[in-house]
Amino acid sequence: MLKYIVRRVLQMIPVFIGVTIILFILRAPGVLPGDPVRMITGERAISEQLRAQIIEKHALDQPLHRQYALYVSNLLRGDLGESYQRGRPVLDIFAEKFPNTLRLALAGILVEIVLGVTAGIISAVRQYSFSDVLVTLSTSVLVSVPVFWLGMLFQIFFGIKLKEWTGGAFYLPISQMSSADFPDWVHLILPAITLASVSTAYVARIMRSQMLEAMGQDYIRTAEAKGLTRRAVTFRHALKNALIPVVTFIGIDFGVMMSGAILTETVFSWPGVGREIFLAVGQRDWPIVMGGVIIIVFLVMIINLIVDLSYAVLDPRIRYGGGAE
Fold it and tell me: Are residues 122 and 34 in the same domain?
């Protein structure tokens, strides 16, 4: 197990370096439109002396490879740079926003697990029934619907129309993460469901297919022949083995939610990392964009490692050792 962990950590290093190189090339002068000095100072007129000071401060007069070496050196010390527009350390900005995104992602994962896994199990156990057809149709629709469009539909129906129909007696908040009219957790409902909508459909499909495959295995027929009830066979034997691909998808999807929350956070004005990156792209504030992407990539790699290690817990036949995975 220890050898496997060390090997996986070493594999992360070239991936991480590759991501930083791509991001750094994108922000290099001439690759994307915009003058870096103008991005820092805004539209106000500046003197040549101030311009020279800014260039020297940000090492913009250095060759690209020197700039990259300086950036990596700062990165290893936990310095993600300074925002062009705000003049604040990027790490401080994301330290404020990250808990909000984490809260939304955890709520989305909870929705994904509860609805997706439950729907997949019901669909598999009651194959070809009305429930199975309903789950299949629902997941097909969710997979086809853009997340931002679904979020706006939720806002119109649950935040505007429902308020009109009930005379203001019942509706859900459609923006921000807190208000005087609702508890904070209520503000999570629509963004979390929107964020998890597509993933929930995939989880339900994967769960259904894996359960059907597991229930057709010889060990399931042996368990039934020994007199175990259908419920015991399904939940004690088939479910545990069927969960391995689902856990893989959910684990990876947690990292995806941290980055994919950009659209959801923008639609619902949720003050998180995704919305911060979205605003920074429009303002050409590259230190925030690069810092946000680097944080998300690092989280995804760590989560993937944790998911891989969880295999041994779900399936004792899987062992990491002796050079075999």
Answer: no
- E strand segments, the chain: none
Residues 291 and 212 reside in one and the same domain: yes
Token pair recorded at residue 6: 């060390």
Contacts of 23 (CB under 8 A, 6+ apart): 289, 290, 293, 294
Same domain, 165 and 103: yes
Place of tokens 């097909």: 140
Q: Which of 286, 260, 253 is nearest to 274 (CA)?
A: 260
The predicted model scores a pTM of: 0.80
Tell me which H or E stretch contains 9: helix 2-26
Cα(first)–Cα(last) distance of the chain, in Å? 9
The three-class DSSP label of residue 324 is: strand
- Within 46-89, where are the H helices? 48-57, 64-76
Tokens of 251: 């684990």
Interval 102-151: pLDDT, tens: 899 999 999 999 999 999 999 988 888 999 999 999 999 998 888 889 99
Residue 45 banded pLDDT, cuts 50, 70, 90: low
Cα separations (Å) of 181 from 118, 170, 264? 32, 11, 22
230 in a domain, yes or no?
yes
The residue among 183, 155, 184 whose CA lies nearest residue 171 is 155
Q: Answer yes or no: do 27 and 147 share one domain.
A: no
Alpha carbons 23 and 325: distance in angstroms, whole number = 32
Containing domain of residue 284, as a range?
97-314
Measured in degrees and rounded to the nearest 5, phi and psi for residue 206 equal -65, -45
Q: Which one, of 162, 196, 159, 193, lies nearest residue 175 by Cα?
A: 159
Report yes or no on 56 lying in a domain.
yes
